[in-house]
Design brief:
single chain; mainly beta; four-stranded antiparallel β-sheet; globular
Length: 114
């Protein structure tokens, strides 16, 4: 069992930045690939970014390439999502997930004002 707790969301103006964190419980964090997903009101949850167990491989949705960066610190059992050049359409609840398992965090709200 892995428990995930996201933090770092908030209200930011267009063009601003936020860094989301996903703290994981347990001693096996480095065994899991991790992902960030988001869900806007009335929309399906969608993929944002993934990172491999060691952090040497990342993948991004086209709509965040060049603006968002996923990273991880296995010593701290934490994954991150650095979000720059935020747009109003990035407004959503952001979730982290252990890939290949049904372990989700509770989500953190990101709101980008125009």
């Amino acid at each position: 069992q892995v428990q995930l707790v996201e933090s770092g969301g908030g209200l930011v103006q267009t063009g601003g930045s936020l860094r989301l964190s996903c703290a994981a419980s347990g001693r096996t964090f480095s065994s899991y690939s991790m992902g960030w997903f988001r869900q806007a009101p009335g929309q399906e949850r969608e993929f944002v970014a993934t990172i491999s167990r060691s952090g040497d491989s990342t993948h991004y949705a086209d709509f965040v390439k060049g603006r968002f960066t996923i990273s991880r610190d296995n010593a701290k059992n934490t994954a991150y999502l650095q979000m720059n050049s935020l747009k109003p359409e990035d407004t959503a609840v952001y979730y982290c997930k252990v890939l290949g398992y049904s372990y989700w965090g509770q989500g953190t709200q990101v709101t980008v004002s125009s």
